[in-house]
Design a protein that fits this description.
This protein is α+β, with helices and mostly antiparallel strands. About 35% of the residues lie in helices and about 20% in strands. It has a six-stranded mixed β-sheet with strand order 4-3-2-1-5-6. A six-stranded mixed β-sheet has the order 12-11-10-8-13-14.
Length: about 600
């Protein structure tokens, strides 16, 4: 970060502290998300990023804490290296949320403050659950929590406006279910939780329910800022800015009996609900700022509603396979181009990222990437969520490993894939050994068969076991749920070490992405997307397995086949045969020849 940028961050920090002093705020805690708890908020809500200079295009990545004399940003292990670099000289210190040196943010704030002090937050950017935990712990120490302190209207003069792009309809022939059917199922789940109305705040839930999308509101996800209210009496209200609908979408909403009201009227509406209303809200995603205005009975829950979206129907899964073929074609063209350009010595990380975006968007069904491509060469790949920028860009030349984690938002489905490839000379024995450990874990998870009721946490060790056996590890999740032309990261299902109490069910889609990172040297990750499907039923119950969705070869020059079992070799062979079978009809002769060469199992 330049001296000028450091000075700007310090000026912003000074402005915040001046406002805090005026308002009697001893400590301000600033979220990195929006009123919908989005992973990737629109620019309008990226205040923490604007204040600190620590940013990530791929999502929320830190919470800021500011007192009169100290300033911190808490972030997780994916961003430790990046955060230390970007925060240097800004007046902010990085604090870890996980790992062996993790520091609890609320505990640290409590240590710093004294009895009678006030902590200020913008309740619209903290969930009910987050704010309640803060409030409870602060109250126990005589510290007050104020939930209506939004500093940015006063100190951020050139703040971007809320996005105002026009919505479009995601065709039911691709989505596989009508709006009427979805609302009926949502209200059925609402009744199960003894509620008679529901307020949806998360943008992917709203986009899924309405079969509406936006191509440019929020980077990498075709969702849009809105709230959706439904009740058993038939009322359906979509709260959004009026410039987001044209004549076609207005007619569509009318046909589905959905009324529209201004986005900013949500608090007033919540306060006006009749006392007899039992409003179902998710405390982990509904803003505390809305909850503070609810005067009827609030019912905390919504797990059943959230799971409806996570279980994909047969139409979605069939269309997803089309998206994977389109993505496989783009990736084939990218890696073939890399092989051709690499000897010229002109490649850089940014040049590769731009080329990948160009190739994906060449398909008219691709509206955006599903996240900013992670293109890391050698030591940059060891930064788990490294994102190349003009400032960090390096030439891709010499010998080493190139890691590319990327995805596309196709109308037929969302993709997410990571491939690690060797460029230049022959990979070292150490590189091949570590890559093979990761690949073995990837295969073990992909081949898992498990009984109904199994959680992702119970399968996580399958992907980590070979690394653990050598005293090696990675600390990010092994798998996340994937949305269907919505968010790349979707809950509630996950595959990770910490327990997520959600069983995997047929129709759910997850990533399979073990990795290994040798700081200062290289990073390795192997990622495909998997769909849960029925395997068999017997006297012991129902059993499930995974079906692979992703279509692109692994770099077999990085595989030490002597470390593989016959079953693992068979899996690799069958997978690559499927890749060739599905992609070949969509490629040119030269592209097909390149693909076939990638699938040859040398020295196996």
């Amino acid at each position: 970060m330049t001296t000028m940028e450091n000075r700007i961050e310090k000026e912003r920090l000074d402005a915040l502290r001046a406002l805090m002093a005026k308002e009697g705020i001893a400590c301000c805690i600033i979220s990195d998300t929006d009123p919908h708890h989005s992973e990737v908020p629109a620019a309008h809500w990226r205040g923490r990023e604007w204040l600190t200079g620590f940013k990530s295009e791929n999502g929320t990545s830190g919470t800021a804490v500011v007192t009169a004399t100290q300033a911190f940003v808490w972030t997780d292990n994916r961003y430790f290296i990046q955060a230390r670099r970007q925060l240097a000289g800004t007046g902010f210190e990085m604090m870890p949320t996980d790992g062996p040196d993790a520091v609890d943010m609320i505990d640290r704030v409590t240590e710093i403050l004294k009895e009678g002090d006030t902590v200020g937050i913008d309740g619209m950017t903290f969930s009910i659950a987050e704010a309640q935990r803060m409030e409870q712990e602060f109250n126990e120490n005589g510290i007050k929590l104020r939930t209506d302190f939004d500093a940015f209207p006063s100190i951020w003069s050139d703040r971007p406006q809320r996005p105002g792009n026009t919505l479009f309809v995601h065709d039911e022939s691709i989505a596989g279910e009508s709006v009427e059917s979805k609302i009926s199922r949502i209200l059925e789940e609402t009744r199960k939780e003894t509620a008679n109305a529901i307020l949806l705040s998360t943008l992917d839930d709203i986009a899924w329910t309405t079969n509406l999308r936006s191509s440019n509101d929020i980077a990498f996800s075709p969702v849009f800022p809105a709230y959706l209210y439904l009740d058993v009496e038939g009322k359906r209200i979509l709260f959004l800015d009026p410039d987001k609908t044209d004549a076609d979408t207005q007619q569509y909403l009318l046909a589905n009996s959905i009324e529209t009201r201004p986005y900013d009227s949500i608090k007033e509406f919540a306060a006006s609900l009749p006392k007899e209303t039992r409003l179902l809200i998710d405390p982990t995603s509904t803003a505390r700022g809305i909850y503070d205005h609810i005067d009827c009975s609030a019912v905390f829950g919504g797990d059943g509603v959230r799971k409806l979206k996570s279980v994909k129907n047969s139409v979605q899964l069939a269309n997803w396979r089309i998206a994977m073929e389109k993505d496989g074609v783009a990736l084939t063209r990218l890696f073939k181009w890399i092989d051709e350009e690499f000897p010229k010595g002109t490649l850089t990380e940014m040049k590769i990222a731009r080329k990948l975006r160009e190739l994906r968007l060449a398909d008219p069904d691709c509206v955006d990437e599903s996240f900013a491509a992670i293109v890391g060469w050698n030591d940059h790949a060891a930064v788990v969520h490294y994102e190349p920028t003009d400032e960090t860009d390096v030439p891709v030349k010499g010998n080493g490993l190139l890691l590319i984690d990327s995805g596309g938002q196709y109308r037929h489905g969302t993709t997410d894939i990571t491939r690690t490839v060797a460029l230049g000379g022959t990979p070292t024995d150490e590189e091949r050994h570590d890559f093979t450990l990761v690949l073995k874990g990837h295969i073990a998870l992909a081949c898992a068969k498990f009984p109904k009721g199994t959680r992702g946490t119970q399968l996580d060790v399958l992907a980590r076991q070979y690394l653990w056996n050598e005293g090696k590890a990675y600390y990010h999740g092994t798998g996340h749920g994937v949305g269907f032309f919505i968010n790349c990261h979707e809950g509630p299902q996950q595959i990770r070490m910490n327990d997520i109490p959600v069983a995997l069910e047929p129709g759910m889609v997850v990533s399979d992405e073990p990795g290994f990172y040798r700081e200062g040297h290289y990073g390795i990750r192997c990622e495909n997307m998997l769909a849960v499907e029925q395997w068999e039923s017997n006297e012991y119950g129902d059993f499930y397995r995974f079906s692979n969705l992703t279509l692109f070869p692994f770099d077999l020059t990085l595989v030490d086949f002597g470390m593989l079992t016959p079953e693992e070799k068979e899996w690799i062979g069958e997978y690559h045969e499927e890749v060739k079978k599905r992609l070949s009809p969509l490629l040119t002769v030269d592209e097909r020849e390149w693909l076939y060469n990638q699938c040859i199992m040398h020295n196996s």
